[in-house]
């Protein structure tokens, strides 16, 4: 079965909590990307959290 992301929520430690349509939950660490290109803006924790609901 092809997994698809159902929801994403940011955490305070620059990780994303991912929920897939099959019920699986994973954590993705974004911290290694924060020194590159457009991702530098996400170093501001308030900006990183803007999609939090």
Largest sheet: 3 strands, antiparallel
Q: How many separate domains make up the residues?
A: 1
- CA-to-CA gap between the ends? 28 Å
Secondary structure category: mainly beta
Average pLDDT score: 89
Strand content: 25-35%
Structure notes:
The protein is mainly β and 53 residues long. The protein has one domain. The chain has one helix and three strands. Strands 1-2-3 form a three-stranded antiparallel β-sheet, with no helix packed on it. It is elongated, with a radius of gyration of 12 Å. The protein starts with a strand and ends in a 5-residue tail after the last helix. 2% of the residues are buried.
Write the layout of secondary structure elements.
Layout: E1 5-10, E2 15-20, E3 25-29, H1 45-48
Antiparallel strand pairs: 1-2, 2-3
Keywords:
single chain, 53 residues, mainly beta, three-stranded antiparallel sheet, elongated
Could you provide a short overview of the structure?
The chain has one helix at residues 45-48; strands at residues 5-10, 15-20, 25-29. The protein has 53 residues and is mainly beta. The mean pLDDT is 89.
């Amino acid at each position: 079965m092809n997994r698809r992301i159902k929801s994403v929520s940011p955490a305070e430690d620059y990780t994303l909590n991912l929920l897939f349509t099959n019920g699986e939950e994973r954590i993705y660490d974004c911290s290694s990307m924060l020194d590159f290109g457009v991702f530098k803006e996400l170093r501001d924790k308030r900006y990183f959290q803007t999609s939090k609901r």
